[in-house]
Design brief:
By secondary structure, the chain is of the alpha+beta class. The chain is about 55% helix and about 10% strand. The protein has an 8-stranded antiparallel β-sheet, with helices on both faces. It has a 4-stranded mixed β-sheet with strand order 3-2-1-4, with helices on both faces. It has a 3-stranded mixed β-sheet with strand order 5-6-7. A hairpin with a 2-residue loop joins strand 14 and strand 15.
């Protein structure tokens, strides 16, 4: 909390005065355990009596203070570790210790190094703490910001004192920021720079000439602060907006505790504005000013206590002024603050849920205080603007204040409990933002949203209309969620509010992800994504049950965070919730099915070979109708796009469109609409058209040399490439074609070479060596003994390789395949897992599926992703004579799911349980060996 200007945390350092012990109030441990003024004074006087020169004396003093500081910071840190939420005492203790060290340096510089018995009027000096140090809020790694104030231009004596002080503090390893100014300088710079003005607002007199302190603060108030309140508010809000734009949304999963949305800087900005406008020294005084209510003050203090505790532990763990809660540090902070695994969720997830809820509280407080200030400082619009501006007409229960929707009469409003929902409908209907006073009223009366309201037909209508009728459902849902209305109306939603999913795949909390998913549907419906999402746009235009789809989007992740599979639990919850929203039985059943199977299409497209007819047939059987296929397709697209800003790409789009197109064909024309024979015949016909200039003999050779899987597994474009590569090839040749496949956001690498065991592994190793991430792969053997393999790869940023990089890529592949580079050794350096990713726990599971393909066993390996994983897995399979026909690679942040379509050396599936166990054992050993490399 900001300290009064006339009270110093350490009023112990008066010019030529001995050190004095400080009061114990507010510190995390006994002040004598941190710093004993009498002991230091005696030690310094003993050193001074030895008559050594200034340089030697300063050196001895630094040794003394360094030992004291080291012991003190260890004591504060240890005590804070044992009292992990006592953040106010922690920040005061670090401030108090800093005061002691700064005061010691000032005393030594003025009394021993540069004594001045009769200073002139110009040889006066005052020392101030500013910034966080001035507020009395210091974390373990905070900077020490000082202001040296002189009445006129700095004198040689003052310059010597300041220089000696700074050398002492620097030698103590304090991170000191300083400025030497006159009062006139402070006023001039404060007018020009809002950052300097803010630091001056928080100045705290430490030591020196008291009249300078009085003059500075009187003139700041009279000549700088008074009359510029609106200017200061606007500047702080502009800073806040720019900071949020840089740091990202409040719900990003690696937030900046200091600068992020809902972080400490937002709380500090609130208090700066309040202090500037209301002239308060403590936030508690805002209650008397009617700027905050008592419960809102408690909300402020809770958020401040929590966020400062997080920042303190973050600094102690890293030993640096780190402000970002990265994944690896989140685990340690959660442990230090006493969080434990429970309810099927990790301790870190419980901790981060609390963090995001506190961040939301900070947003609420910002809105409340700024509205109060707006009412005080708002200027009337110009006359012409007021005459011609079109004000929306609101219903009689409401009024408009500062262009925001407000409640006309609180008592009348609360007499009808449904009004707690109706106000959001009025907000969307008029396009007005809701006034914070109205939000206050809603939040304070959430208990009125009881079972009677949930069963009320009008309440149900209003809620569904918010989603479907008025446009911009994202705005309504986000505001309802932040105010607690959404969880009150649908209590089953409450557990996922601010719930973090501790992985690298999801960029948002579960509730924010849900709102993003709804927003995606709204954007598609408004034709904003027609070019990017043509299939989903066409489906919506063709007619779809919007109510079913919207409710399914709202509830699809409602089962997360428990021990049970969230899709299964979500379906069970949906069975209770959907009828309460007024949906008829048939729609409830469809919504439940969509929630239960909301990952089905994504999994089929990304984890299975959709070129295999069995994949499409199985998916068609599961979906059963075109209506469900349409609903599930749009839900899947919105869901993937809502995971994070960079999750959706052309590769996923191509896979989903292909699966949709083929599945619809089966649903409309029967299961036999897709067969290997039909596909092969059509593919050969298309290739003949593409190669119409070839000699008939060569064309016959090419169309007759491949088995059926080749024709069904590749597009005609790839068939044409392989035809050219194979044309006239010799047994000792390796032919390669590299081409950016923009439609799939990947680079296609085609190989043609004589077939031999382990070829897939060698090719995967060559690609891993150049840092290429394989996202899909197919390999086929021709009837005349050649291997044709197609890999789609991306660079480390998840993009296709630029044309300028292809020659180097090709050269490295050539060297590896020629045996000049051994992949197993060279890949080690690429395998290391980054520090921030090591906190993730990704269990390994290996499954064998003999039903998902007609002719192959599907081995699915779900484990932690790393650079050399695909090479390790394919090499292991090759070493036991497993033939790999294709590999489907899916990555979800730190998790990789690699599916291999395989046969044994006789061309048969792996039905034997013993053979499966042997393969599983070898694959697990390869994964563990690679994991050891990654950890080392």
């Amino acid at each position: 909390m900001t300290l009064p200007q006339n009270v110093s945390v350490a009023p112990a350092f008066k010019l030529s005065a001995p050190f004095r012990p400080l009061p114990k109030r507010g510190l995390i441990c006994d002040p004598h355990e941190i710093f004993s003024g009498e002991t230091i004074t005696d030690a310094v006087e003993t050193l001074a009596a030895k008559g050594m020169d200034n340089r030697a004396f300063r050196g001895e003093v630094v040794k003394l203070l360094s030992a004291v500081r080291k012991e003190a910071v260890e004591k504060i840190a240890a005590t804070f570790t044992g009292k992990p939420f006592e953040s106010r005492q922690m920040t005061r203790s670090y401030t108090w210790l800093t005061d002691c060290l700064v005061g010691s340096a000032y005393l030594i510089a003025t009394k021993y190094l540069h004594p001045l018995q009769t200073p002139t009027e110009g040889e006066r000096l005052a020392l101030f703490a500013v910034g966080g140090y001035g507020r009395g809020e210091m974390a373990p790694q905070s900077d020490v910001d000082l202001l040296f104030l002189t009445p006129y231009k700095i004198t040689p004596w003052a310059e010597s004192v300041i220089e000696s002080m700074l050398y002492i503090l620097w030698d103590l390893r304090l991170k000191v920021g300083h400025a030497s100014r006159t009062v006139k300088d402070c006023l001039r710079l404060g007018r020009e720079d809002q950052t300097i003005r803010t630091s001056l607002l928080e100045n705290r007199f430490l030591d020196g000439f008291p009249p300078l302190n009085e003059e500075l603060n009187q003139r700041l108030q009279d000549e700088l602060f008074t009359g510029t309140e609106q200017e200061f508010i606007e500047a702080k809000l502009a800073e806040r907006e720019a900071r949020h734009l840089k740091q990202g949304a409040r719900y990003v999963v690696e937030p900046n505790v200091k600068e992020g949305k809902g972080g400490l800087r937002d709380l500090q900005s609130l208090f700066w504005i309040a202090k500037y406008v209301y002239h308060v020294q403590e936030v508690s005084e805002l209650v008397d000013k009617d700027a905050l209510r008592r419960d809102e003050l408690e909300m402020f203090l809770r958020a401040q206590k929590f966020l400062w505790a997080v920042r303190g532990h973050l600094h102690l763990i890293t030993g640096r002024p780190v402000e970002v809660l990265s994944f690896d540090v989140q685990v340690e902070v959660a442990e230090r603050m006493g969080y434990r695994d429970k309810g099927g969720r990790r301790a870190v997830e419980h901790f981060m849920q609390d963090y995001f809820r506190q961040a939301t509280s900070v947003g609420d407080l910002t809105r409340i205080l700024l509205t109060r200030l707006e009412a005080i400082h708002a200027k009337s619009a110009p006359l012409l603007e007021r005459i011609f501006r079109r004000r929306p007409r609101v219903k009689s229960e409401y009024t408009v204040i500062h262009n925001r929707l407000a409640i006309a009469n609180d008592t009348t409003f609360l007499n009808d409990k449904v009004n707690l929902l109706r106000i959001f409908e009025e907000g969307l209907r008029t396009g007005l933002l809701i006034h914070p006073d109205a939000m206050r009223l809603v939040t304070r009366n959430l208990q009125l949203i009881d079972e009677d309201v949930r069963k009320n037909k009008e309440a149900r209508r209003i809620f569904l209309d918010l989603l479907l009728k008025h446009g911009n459902p994202e705005r309504a849902l986000r505001r309802m969620n932040e105010l607690g209305v959404l969880a009150a109306f649908i209590p089953e939603f409450e557990p996922i509010v601010a719930m973090m999913q501790f992985n690298m795949y999801h960029s948002y909390t579960v509730d924010e992800h849900t709102i993003q998913v709804v927003a995606n549907l709204d954007r598609i419906e408004r034709d904003e994504l027609t070019n990017e999402l043509p299939l989903s746009s066409d489906i919506l235009r063709s007619g779809i049950n919007r109510r079913v789809l919207m409710v399914a989007l709202l509830l699809h992740d409602i089962g997360k965070g428990r021990d049970i599979d969230h899709s299964i639990l979500g379906a069970q919850i949906t069975r209770r919730v959907a009828p309460k929203l007024g949906l008829p039985k048939s729609e409830c059943e469809t919504v439940e099915w969509l929630v239960r199977h909301h990952l089905l299409m994504s999994d089929m497209a990304q984890k299975r070979d959709i070129a295999d007819p069995r994949t499409v047939r199985d998916f068609a059987k599961a979906v059963s109708t075109v209506d469900r296929l349409n609903l599930l397709t749009v839900l899947t697209v919105c869901d993937i796009r809502g995971v994070g800003p960079d999750t959706w790409n052309n590769w996923k789009a191509v896979l989903l469109r292909a699966l949709y197109r083929q599945t619809r064909l089966v649903l409309e024309n029967g299961l036999e609409a897709i067969t290997r024979e039909n596909r092969g015949t059509e593919a050969k016909k298309m290739l003949r058209t593409e190669l119409s200039n070839w000699a008939p003999k060569d064309l016959k050779l090419e169309t007759g040399r491949h088995y059926d899987p080749y024709w069904q597994g590749l597009h005609t474009t790839a068939h044409k490439v392989f035809a050219s590569l194979l044309h006239g090839i010799n047994d000792d040749e390796i032919r390669i074609d590299l081409h950016p496949d923009e439609d799939r956001d990947a680079t296609r690498v085609c190989f043609a070479l004589a077939d031999h065991p382990g070829i897939f592994s060698r090719l995967a190793g060559a690609l891993a060596l150049v840092g290429a991430n394989v996202v899909d792969a197919r390999t086929f053997t021709s009837k005349d003994g050649y291997a044709t393999a197609a890999f789609w790869v991306q660079d480390s940023d998840g993009r296709p390789y630029e044309s300028s990089r292809l020659p180097r890529l090709r050269k490295m592949i050539d060297r590896t395949l020629a045996g000049e580079v051994v992949p197993g050794e060279a890949i080690k350096s690429r395998d290391a897992i980054k520090k921030r990713e090591r906190a993730f726990k990704v269990p390994t599971t290996i499954t064998f599926d003999n039903e998902g393909s007609e002719i192959y066993t599907i081995i699915e390996v779900d484990t932690r992703d790393r650079a050399g994983l695909l090479f390790d897995l394919t090499r292991t399979l090759a070493n036991v004579n497993v033939y790999i026909a294709s590999a489907v690679i899916a990555t979800y942040g730190e998790q990789a799911v690699d599916s291999f379509y395989v046969k044994d050396m006789f061309g048969l599936k792996f039905y034997s349980t013993n053979k499966q166990r042997t393969l599983e054992k070898r694959l697990l050993a390869a994964i563990e060996k690679g994991a050891e490399r990654a950890r080392s």
